[in-house]
Amino acid sequence: xxxxxCFEATRQRCRxxxxxxxxxxxxxxxxxxxxxxxxxxxxxxxNQVEVEMKKRHRAEAELEKxxxxxxxxxxxxxxxxxxxxxxxxxxRSVLSALAGRRLGAALTPGRRSSAxxxxxxxxxxxxxISYDRTEDDV
Length: 138
Description:
Rac GTPase-activating protein 1, 4 helices, mainly alpha, coiled coil, 80% helix, GTPase activator activity
């Protein structure tokens, strides 16, 4: 009777362990599917960041190009003889205001928009989005 009771206890323990193993495999399958979906999202996010970075660089290059043109126009206008009547007094005051306030700071070469740098730097940094596969082994 004791041997039969031991066999029955062992059988029930084996059945519980099989059920636990089955649940663990199901959970593992769900987690692996979720991980795969997250990896796909990460890949898309990385691609989107790359596209946005390229757009940003193109826009910054275009901005610098336009600023250089504006600087040349400004310098050309400032070189004009004031006695020729090309510019009115109001236009001269507007240009002087632009020269002091806007062009002096805005046309420095290689500058970046501080609003973009401050608000999006962490979003656009590739180092923040790196993924190390060695953690998967753990």
